[in-house]
Amino acid sequence: MSIRIAVKQGQCIECIAYEHGFTPQTILDHPDNAKIKNRRREHNILKHGDVVVVPDRRQHEEDAATGKRHRYRRKGLPVKFNLVLEEGGEPRANEPYVLWIDGEVSEGETDKDGVLSESISPGARKGRLLIGEGENQEEFLLDFGYVDPINELSGIQGRLKNLGLYDGPVDGDPSEETTAAIVAFQASVGLESNGKSDDYKTMNALLEAHWS
């Protein structure tokens, strides 16, 4: 019997699929999720209050010779976590980092564009990141899945906040501060500074700048 899940803040298609043993595409392709699939441009990103239907699990049989070891890989695992680090508009290139996510530790350096890229579990919810060394080392706490869809004003606000262009609340309120942040972002990427949150080019540019 399929179940209906009322999405809570921080949940996404990938983590719901992971928790129930499905691939994200299986969840999205369920007929009862057609509205979610059509309404959300970035299918993995959900909003608090969305309803997702999880289908029945089906048994799958695989032939395998006895007396041998067999390895099976679950589809959809892991997922990629990408983070762009900048300071004063310039990439923080070749910066050493230590990343803790759900007890797993990864170490490395950002690339020439200031990008940190690591494979993580779809169920990851919290993380801790140390950037730099010695007295210049900085610490950041990470929440995964806490940005609303791009076609929600709260999703626009959340991305602008992460990019350092907006200091107000992420509440979906069309405030003057929100409009000013949108105008600043549009100007920074060479778009018409109209302050419209539903502008298609603006949403695409914001997705690209935010990497999601």
Percent of residues in helices comes to 25-40%
Number of distinct helices:
6
Query: Pairing-aware structural class of the strands and helices?
Result: alpha+beta
* Integer average pLDDT: 85
How many β strands by DSSP?
10
Distance between the termini: 33 Å
Domain Peptidoglycan binding-like: 156-199
Protein name: Peptidoglycan binding-like domain-containing protein
InterPro entries: Peptidoglycan-bd-like, PGBD-like_sf, PGBDSf
Organism: Desulfosarcina ovata subsp. sediminis
List the helices and strands and how they pair.
Elements: E1 3-6, H1 13-20, H2 24-28, H3 34-39, E2 51-54, E3 79-84, E4 86-87, E5 90-91, E6 96-101, E7 104-109, E8 115-120, E9 126-131, E10 138-143, H4 153-162, H5 176-188, H6 200-210
Antiparallel strand pairs: 1-2, 3-8, 4-5, 6-7, 6-9, 9-10
Pfam families: PG_binding_1
Organism: Desulfosarcina ovata subsp. sediminis
Protein name: Peptidoglycan binding-like domain-containing protein
